[in-house]
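Lecture 7 notes: from sequence to structure.
We start with the chain below.
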Amino acid sequence: MTGSFDLAARWRKGEPVLSLRAFGLLPIDAVAQFGSTITTGKQWLRPVYAGSGAPEDYANVDAEGKIAVVTRSDDISPSDRATAAVAAGAALLLVVNDKPGILYEYVGNSAIPVASIHRDIGSILIALAEHGMPPLKVSQEQYPDTIYDLARVWRDQVPDQPLTYHPSHHDLARIDAHYHAVHDAEGAGYRANTALGTVSTSRDTEWYPGIRTEWVTPDISWVESHEQRGWEVWRTSAPTPGARPPRWTGSPPLSDRPPTGRHGSQTVDSRTT
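Predicted structure tokens for the same chain:
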């Protein structure tokens, strides 16, 4: 019996929705969590350490208007951790991963931004927070104006190298996307490649009307959709460098259900026949 095996990896990268800088200069990698509220603007917020983030951990901590830095623990759920931070008056919840790697959690419908950081930099931040660290510069961008939709496909092979992809702008198709709407409103959209036939992805929040620069791996079939207030428009394409800018119109504009999204995600799919 013979068959085929295909593997595809795709990445959605974008301008960070939340970024942190120590002393206004040194970047701290932070990953916004599903369900947290992101706005647009810049603040200087002082970090304070609040243990595992349980309600009792705030008893002797003044977190009002500050960054609550906590250590992830199985003893409290992500949503309860966020709720406790909100109740304590924190402006931002920063969760230090207690394991290697990047932490992604659904935090419920949190009224404040919630982000995770790597345990190595987190341990340093905790030590500094306990000794009165100066405020961190917090930048938020609710609707990034630049995104990258990237993909690689391997046919009849399993790659023997890490799944990395380092294209230059010359290797990609640039799309100057214009999104039109009758009324200003939030919506949601996605783009996914159909190299393996099946589309599986999550929507990112978008604001209409708007203009966005989108860099896409060319010569691969993509499907994209944009929704607002129950109206949805979609198309398929295989963009090439120099492709004509698309213009999207929602009339009336796209769902009252606020979707959750992420930036900086990677998905790996395989198909065997």
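Points to note: Helices lie at 78-87, 119-130. The CA atoms of residues 182 and 251 lie 6 Å apart.
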